[in-house]
Amino acid sequence: MYIDPHIHLVSRTTDDYEAMQKAGIVATIEPAFWLGQPRTEVGSFKDYFSTLVGWERFRASQFGIVHYCTMGLNSKEANNIPLAEQVMELLPLYVGKEGVVAIGEIGYDDQTEAEDRFYREQLELAKEVDLPVLIHTPHRDKKKGTYRSMDVAEEHGMDPRWIIVDHNNEETVKEVLDRGYWAGFTIYPHTKMGSERMVEIVKQYGPERIIVNSAADWGISDPLAVPKTADLMRKMGIPEVHVQMVTYKNALAAFSLSGQMHEDDWLKAPPIDQTKKMGGNSVLRGGQVPRVEGPSDRVEN
Ligand SMILES: [Zn+2]
Fold first, then answer.
1. What sign does the dihedral 137-139-143-148 (CA atoms) show?
2. Which family does the entry's similarity section mention (predicted)?
3. What is the whole-number distance in angstroms between the Cα of residue 298 and the centre of ligand 1?
4. Which range among 45-54, 99-108, 179-188, 189-198 shows the weakest confidence by mean pLDDT?
5. Is the pLDDT of residue 191 over 90?
6. How far away, in angstroms, is 137 Cα from ligand 1 center?
7. Which of 95, 107, 148, 237 is deepest in the core (most CB within 10 A)?
8. From CA 205, how far away is CA 201, in angstroms rounded?
9. What spacing in Å lies between the alpha carbon of 8 and ligand 1's midpoint?
10. What is the three-state SS of 217-246?
């Protein structure tokens, strides 16, 4: 069993869902993020947040995958201050919904003053509602941005054990682990941070508090990055218990701090039944044969 704790499923297809389930992914976490172009109205955030706790959760269930999400104002769109202020007013309505396992992904993009302001405000929100925090670290000035994210979290009295610092690399991992945070790693295909490098990192640092994810979205990315990396780890001689920690157990431990994520959610999930509808809508198109599992089709663990 695998968990992909960072994947933007609204951008993925039903083929992806089928392949993920086949590969052993039982649960996914979808962080609220930007959509590739800036939103211009607060209503567009509202509908997006509703999709994350509504339709997408249902859609995943139709393919045998449990869907959770994180809620937050992403750092890119924090720079539109009037809009960001409205999103901050909206967020409290969503952070307590079923399946919301963290505030995120929040943090820095260009490390502007506005990003800093809304990052801090959302750290305070996380404390108020007792949720872990998922930090998006910038792709430019990665090291500086990552250290700053942690400095500011500590300034706000946050407990590192409640924070997942994501998109790490060799340059940031030591500091993040030494300071007591969870360290997320995103496996992007055809880039520097591929599965091979992930294997080396786990060899060097061990499996404690390391979490592997795909961050698959509308860009070139791979929704099977977690199981593929696990396979490579096994091939390269990493012990099975370590593989399970970085591709399943650690994510569960970190995000279950929310009280919203339990192993039974997938171990005791109802069988797949694609005849189900949500708001009158189904994943089926005319004439398609629904997949309906009997209890005996479930894999026992
Ligand atoms: Zn993301």
1. negative
2. Belongs to the metallo-dependent hydrolases superfamily.
3. 31
4. 189-198
5. no
6. 10
7. 107
8. 6
9. 7
10. CCCCCCCCHHHHHHHHHHHCCCCHHHHHHH
